[in-house]
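Exercise 7. Predict the structure of O-methyltransferase domain-containing protein from Asparagus officinalis.
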Amino acid sequence: MARASSTEEEAVSAEEMLAAQAQVYNVVMGHIGTMCLKSAIELNILEIVHNAHVLSHSDLLSKLPNVPPWKSPFVHRIMRLLAQMGYFKIGNKDEEVLYSLTPLSKMFLLKNKPLSLSPYLGLLTPPWTNVWYSLSDWLQSDGKGCMFEFEHGKSTWDIASHNPELNSGFNEAMAADSRVIMKAVVDQCSEAFKGLHTLVDVGGGTGTSALAIAQAHPGLKCTVYDLPHVIASVPPNSLIDAISGNMFESIPQADAIFLKWILHDWTDEDCVKILKKCKDAIPNGGGKVIIVDFVLNDNKNSSETFTQLLFDASMMAYTDGKERTEYEWKRIFLDAGFTDYKITPIGLRSLIEVFP
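Solution. The predicted structure, encoded as tokens:
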């Protein structure tokens, strides 16, 4: 039989082919690790291991009374996967498997830690995840709206306003993110708040960001401003005020308007409308808008850029918005009537000061 002509497949070495196969499998099965981590959080496994510092497998099973003994090997297999992902350390002593936490899980996944991101795992529920099964159908449809609206018939905000459980889970996840990013903001960007007397946190959720700013700058009067069903969940606090309203209609007057992870939810046209309302609310001399959001650098090949692009895809799924490059931000600012801006990178995101 004649040998087939050279093909692209033949030009790839066996080593390259197998490495590529593993990469594809990692993508296809990536959700498995995520759901195993979600289960570990739901079962309080991280807290159990943390309280013991180092815990044997048998002792862990004894503290999971609702897990039948015959499922002990399955628990170990889950722990082994999570250890490979960096959330646990696994050791051995006298043929007994031992578990302990890593710095990553201690800082970001214990429920009682101030910087815990565990509420984000709570968003892995059908109303949020099922929309991804509709991606191909959504792309081929003529209908307006995001994937969430295509799947559920209403926008994210409409459903959240009538679904207390979904609304609570979303607010908890946003508050968790705010605790992390606002620690960086107040530590690294304190100059941005100097000289201000009043600040309104627009779309500020349950007030986590406004409270962080108020605590870091005692002379600065901070107000959280959001929709009525969100403001109803703001815990009473003497350091901040809470006002309900619609940012598309009006924004309370202040020296500065603060927008954390708000504008990426909206189209360019809606962002211009929001920023014009912000401009109306601040003084021409000395006033500014402070934005905490992504500034994409999609030419940079890095894990940070990959994470930013994942969030961009998330915006496609749940909102009409997107993550933006500096050029796209600049165009929006100019269209809204602003004259200048300053970008200060802070990890995945940036603090952007916008001036009238």
